[in-house]
Amino acid sequence: MNLDVNGESFKCYLLDTGLLISLAFDVGIMSDEELFHAFLRGRLSINEGMFFENAVAQQLRASGHKLHFHEFYKKEDDEHIFEIDFILTKGRYICPIEVKSSVSNRHVSLDMFCEKYHNRVKDPVVIHSKDLRIDGGVEYLPAYMTWPL
To answer: pTM score > 0.70 for this model?
Structure first.
């Protein structure tokens, strides 16, 4: 029994992102050829974030990390739920990771988490599809650089 894990909120990932994509589209709405052409043209109305996050989860597990997800409120009476996609441990510090599949410089949940746990956070990361950069203490990593975390 793990006393530090909240069983009320969790995320599930599939170890094979390709299989996840196949299962997600195995509903018989389009033929395989129609699906392939729609995918190539960027005309699928899908939650791309789910696939992107799953691929990152797969890389983190392959490099030996346990996957920890965290939901929190800014204040006790607040209705807005913030979430951190992954939390890694680095010695006595924690490294929060937010995954962004689309172009966005906003990371409200990551900022709120860093503010709330400022004395324990080290090296916050946004994993995205763009170039490597560091901005305001946040490291923006392209997805292919997830492996060495």
So the answer is: yes
